[in-house]
Amino acid sequence: MCISGTCDNRKISAAQPKQLRPTLPRAPVQSRQPITQRRTKAYKTIEQAKSRYSNGPFSWKSGIMFVATCGLLVWYFEFEKERMQRKRIAEAAKGVGRPKVGGTFELVDQNGKPFTSEMMKGKHSLVYFGFTRCPDICPEELDKMADMLDMVEKKAPDALLPIFITCDPARDTPKALKSYLSEFHDKFIGLTGTYDQIKDLCKKYRVYFSTPQNVKPGQDYLVDHSIYFYLMDPDGDFVEALGRQHSPQQASAIILDHIKDWNDKK
């Protein structure tokens, strides 16, 4: 039952179609490329991609630089460690109760002039004991001493005094020393003296030497002796003994290091 035509109005409104809201056109959905395609898109060829990723994040050049840097650091720390150790040994050698190496002496040089231990002061000295008729070891060590002196002279001119002291004073006269040492270096100083003077000095330097007994005049013989270079500081105190295991390069570096330490203390 309808009142005031209400039912008719509902029928009319239901029969009319609803108006749709206007809608915006949507952009077409693009399909995403696979991950593998996106990664290789920057390379023109497969070979380029392989070359890029075969090197990894570091190139072989950066690897070499890294290894070289590590090597230099290791060398530096080892060098500093040895330098400080040598410095401690040199300081300890001056302490009370330590065996003293070196001492006072009065000898004669290759020119026949007096030479005393006081004349060593003011410079570092490199002292070697040997004899002029030594067939092999002494010439080798004196060649080495000449190389050491030249290397030191390049960086510290006139800072080192090279001294050769004979263990065979009976045959090594000043004239014999002068002729012999001129074959190695013009700055070498050769020293000789009486047998008792040389024996006393060898004891002071802790140098062992021996000559054969019952040697007849004019008879040839060899002298057994210690093989060391004794480095002394400008005060005449013992610093370090350099042996045959040191090359001229190694020995000269050690000497220069001690010279530098001495100059830094001034």
Automatic annotation (TrEMBL):
It holds the Pfam family SCO1-SenC. Belongs to the SCO1/2 family. Cu cation binds at C134, C138, H225. It is found in: Mitochondrion inner membrane. It comes from the Eukaryota. The chain crosses the membrane at residues 58-77. The lineage of its organism: Eukaryota, Fungi, Dikarya, Ascomycota, Pezizomycotina. The keyword Kinase does not apply. Disulfide bonds join C134-C138. It comes from Fusarium coffeatum. This is Thioredoxin domain-containing protein. InterPro entries: SCO1/SenC, Synth_of_cyt-c-oxidase_Sco1/2, Thioredoxin-like_sf. One of its GO terms (molecular function) is copper ion binding.
